Amino acid sequence: MPPMRTEVALQVDDERPARSVAVPQGQAVVGNAGGEGGKGGRKEDGRAKALAALPRQRSLRSVSTQTSRERRKAKGGTSALGRRLGEAACPNDQKPEGSARRAEARSSVTGEAFLADHRRAWSPSTHQDSSAGIGGICKRQGDGVCANCGKQGSDTIKLKSCTACRLVKYCGVDCQRAHHKRHKKACKKRAAELKDERLYSQGHERPEGDFCPICTLPIPFPMKSHSRFNACCMKLICDGCDMAAQKRGMFDCLFCRTRYPDNDADSLTMIQTRVAKKDPAAMFFLGQKYFNGDLGLQKDMQKAAELYTEAAELGSVNALFSLGCASFFGDGVGQDEKKAVQFWTKAAMQGHVESRRNLGCIEGQNGNRERAVRHCLISAKMGHEDSLENIKQMFMDGEATKEQYVVALRGYQNTVEEMKSHDRDEAMRLGYH
């Protein structure tokens, strides 16, 4: 017959219940001195001695559980999120007996005041919709309240932020109008701050039209003295690329390969053809010809302003700059310095360097030295020499710091180095233009 298995209880840990180990009856166990031949008493005595001699082993789960328990005791209890969620789900008066004992142990470490505050903050009575959980609470807090009536934002009540300052929210137009007098001062202040942030953070890179399409390098200032404008394709070609092409026997347009016009009439025909197709660059160029009376056109500043306006609406940054100049000096339009500043501001935020420099000059004339330095610092770092001279003069007058002048000088030098090329240096040496 096969040996029978007898269940023997082993107490492994004082904190854990006894577990059973199956021992085959009649088989020897490690440390067992007896066998089947020693009568019943000797057999039982030997089996008891053998069980007593077994090492007190613990399972991996028991060890990991005890290690986690010791780690929590060293920290003073369970994690904060666990305590909060546990107390919200089960208040003290509804907790099981074991949970109540653990809460008492934690209160002795963390303090009754701490637990009371968190119990109030996370109890279901504090938040009516406790089933929403943490995500629902955060969502309700993010909706905000109406600044006028105090209504809480929800799925049914949609709050809209003040479009000028983004500081407050309203549930409707009536509340916004009622709160306007109290909010007006703070709104204007914050709106001005946001406007300045956009003004000084944008327009640090020159627009695409300032780059030669052949060598892809930015054209140095003043651009008219270092490039050629082609009426066939409305592209600026730098002197270096133009001279290098002529050395190789290429006398047509380098970009579109069109033959250059022989007279002003042909040039005007090319420009008007592009204007008819709503090309903003062509409209701006034709406006310049009307402004100066070139290509056989009669000088007409009003017509030039109309072409600038249409070109600006189609996205021409240069047209915005010219409109600002026309408004500032009253050429073809009514003289309006505020309107000129608006045009230059739009152009500067799109990377127009001369508009940025003009804004600096206006701020300096108005006594806003700090704002003037910030404008000229941006344009100087983009390669504008006159802006660098302005900062140098302000530094000598004590209106700019040495660090600001050093930053402007280094930025200007780095930009100038990026605009250099062998062909451009050769064209400048030979006086080519």
From TrEMBL:
Keyword rRNA-binding appears in the UniProt entry: no
Domain MYND-type: 146-187
The keyword Oxidoreductase is annotated on this UniProt entry: no
InterPro entries: Sel1-like, Sel1_AlgK, TPR-like_helical_dom_sf, Znf_MYND
Spans annotated as Disordered: 1-108
SUPFAM superfamilies per the UniProt record, alphabetical: HCP-like, HIT/MYND zinc finger-like
Keywords from the UniProt entry: Metal-binding, Zinc, Zinc-finger
Compositional bias ranges of the Basic and acidic residues kind: 39-48, 94-105
Domain of life: Eukaryota
GO molecular function: zinc ion binding
Family: Belongs to the sel-1 family.
Name under which the protein is recorded: MYND-type domain-containing protein
Organism, scientific name: Thalassiosira oceanica
